[in-house]
Amino acid sequence: MTAFAALAVLALPGSGADARQARPAPVVEATAPRPHGEPIMAIVSIKAQKVTFYDSEGWIWRAPVSTGVSGRETPAGVFAIIEKDKDHHSTLYDDAWMPNMQRITWNGVALHGGPLPGYAASHGCVRMPYGFAEKLFDQTWIGMRVIIAPGDVAAVDFSHPALFVPNAEALAAAPSRAATLGREAEDAAKTAGEAKTAAAIADREAKSLKAALRKLEQAKARADAELKIADRKLAAAKTDQARAQAEEAKQKAVANAADAAAQLDAARTDTTAKLDAAATTKEAAKAAAGKKTDIAKAAEEAKLATEPVSVYISRSTQMLYVRRNTHKPARDGGGEVFDTSLEAPVTIRDPDRPLGTHVFTAVAQNGSGLRWTAVTIDDGDDAKDALDRITIPRDVLARIAPTAVARSSIIVSDEPLSTETNYRTEFVAVLSNQPQGGFITRRPTADVNVASGDEYDDGFGNFFQRSWDGQPVAPPRRRAPPQTYFRPVQPGWW
Fold this sequence. Notes:
By secondary structure, this protein is an alpha+beta fold.
C-alpha cells in the first residue's frame, strides 16, 4: 500500500483513525530543541488548555494548563505580568497555595502552579504544572506580554509599513543622552536641595529679625512715652529743686529715646537688607526647583526612550494609549509604575466595522529596523487590513518610533481598555464576546492614587488623583455592555 493510499484509508468516515483524530492529543510539557533566549510573550489557549512561551525565534516552552470553569471562566484578552510572588497564598480562596504566582490583573487573575485534572477547573486563574511554573518563574519579567486566546493561535512573522521603524542615530544616542540627563538631573536635584536649605535658613533668620525689630519698636515707643512724661513733670514743677530733678529726668529720657531710635533705625536698615537677601534666596530656590523639575522630566523622557514602548489602539474609543515601564516600585499596592502620559485620538477608516484584536510584537532588531510577529485572537479584519485602516498622528509617531526597541508592541482591538487598567498595569483588555465569569465575579481593584514623582521622592513629576473617564464608544457589536477606560491624568514626559 502506498503512503497516499494509507492516508486515504485513514480518512474514511467512521474509521478508528478518524475517531481518534476528532479528539486532540493531550498537551505535554515540551522544550524547543534549540538554545533559547529571554521569553517575550506567553499565549494561553483556552480551547487547547495549553500555554506556549515565545522568544525572538519562536516557541521555547509549552505546557498543559487548567483555566476557569463554567461561570468562572478565565477572561480572554491581552494582559501583561504586573507582579510576581514565589510563595503566594490566595486572599480569596481559603489561603490556597498558588506557588510561583505571576499576576496579570489586580483583581486576582494570575498564572501559577496548581493541580491539572486535564480540563478547565480553576476559579479564573491559569494553572500550570508545578515544576513548569517554578522553572519559568525566574525567566519572566514585569511587563511581559500574556495573551489569553479563546482558540489555539500562534505568533507568526509579520511586516507592515505602519509598524515602528526606529532611527539608527536616535537609537545610538538614546543611552548616552539618558545617562547625561540623568547626571544633570542629579546635579539639579542637589542644587535645588541646597537652595531649599539656604532659603529655609534665610526664612528662619528673617522671622528672627522681624521679632527683634518688633522688640526695638516697642522699646522706642516706651522711651518716647517716658520722654513725654518727663516733659509733663518738668512743666508741672513748682520749685527750683523740682524743676532741676525734672530737667535731669528729661535729659535721661531724651538720651534713652535717641538711643532707642538709633537702634531701631539701624535694625530696620539691617533687616531690610537681610529680608531682600532672603527674598533673593527664596527666588533662587524656586528657580532651582523649576530647573530640577524641567531637567528631571527631560531625564525621565530620555530614560523611558530606552525602554520598550507598548501602544494600544481602541476602535471603541478611537484613541491610542501608550505605556512604558518606569521600573519604579508602586508604594500603594505592589507592582511597578507604568508611565501613562501619552494618549491621542486616531483615525480609523470605517469605524463601525470590526477590526478584530491583534497583537504585534517587535521580537528582535533586524538590521536597522525591527522584526515583528502578529497574533490574532478575535475575529474581524485580518492583521494587515486592520493596520491599513488606522492612521496614527505623525507627532505621536515622532515621539515613539525613533527609539522603538525589541519587545515594543502595538495592540489593535475593538475593545476599550478594561477598568482594571491603571498606572500599575501595562494594558488590560478583555474580549467582551467571550465568557468572563472568572473576571467579572471578582471584586474590582480599589480606587488608587495615580502616583509618580515627588510622592516617590525621586524628583520626577507630581502626585495626582485617579480620575475615571467614561469614553464614548463605537456602535457595539458584542453582547456585553461597553466598558469604561480609566485614564489617569499625568504630565507629559516628552
